[in-house]
Amino acid sequence: MGLAAAFLRTPEEAYGRLEVMATGQSMYASMMCSHEPKGAIFNCDANGAMPEILHRMILQSRPGVLDLLPALPEAWPRGEICGIKARQQISIDRLAWNEKERHVTLYLISEKDQKIVLRLPRAEAIKRIEAPAGAVMAQSAEEPPNQRTVAVGAGITVEFTIRY
Fold first, then answer.
1. Which end is more exposed in the chain, N or C (fewer Cβ atoms within 10 Å of the end residue's Cβ)?
2. pTM for this entry
3. Residues 6+ apart with CB under 8 A from 163
4. Which helix (H) or strand (E) segment is 20 a member of?
5. Can you give the C-alpha Rg of the chain in angstroms?
6. CA 64 to chain CA centroid, nearest Å
């Protein structure tokens, strides 16, 4: 349910599923989980589900597209995550956000030369994107205002600061 909520971009529902798993009576002191409340049946489903739900709330990817913060709940107005993988041979070294200041900082490295669409699904528009010279391509008339297409080279860590 938590993954479905993240993909449907209903952040409060996704967060609620995490909260139930983490604070309910289905978590042992060892951080392992039970299938039923009160520890009736040992089961480790939640141990894989919780990190994946969190990951998908913060980053979703498909070939050529990175959706940044697609299901960010109100409980996380700022934060960062480091060391996650995305599709198309992309590693996210750091993704940090501050909702009050309306900006995202993204450090990524691609294993191949490629163009990537950076998108903020919850933002109306990207006001400005700062990146190394030559990394940002001009926004085309067909692109929605909340995304930009960028070109990245293989093996180079690129830092983007996106203001929205």
1. N
2. 0.87
3. 102, 103, 126, 127, 128, 129, 130
4. helix 11-23
5. 18
6. 15
58's tokens? 């913060």
Q: And the tokens for 91? A: 């590693």
Q: Which CATH number fits domain 2-163: 3.40.30.10, 3.40.50.880, 3.90.1150.30, 2.60.40.1180?
A: 2.60.40.1180
Domain boundaries, the chain: 2-163
DSSP string of 91-139? Answer: EEEEEEEETTTTEEEEEEEESS-EEEEEE-TT-S---EEE-STTTBPPP
User: Are the CB atoms for 151 and 100 separated by under 8 Å?
Assistant: no
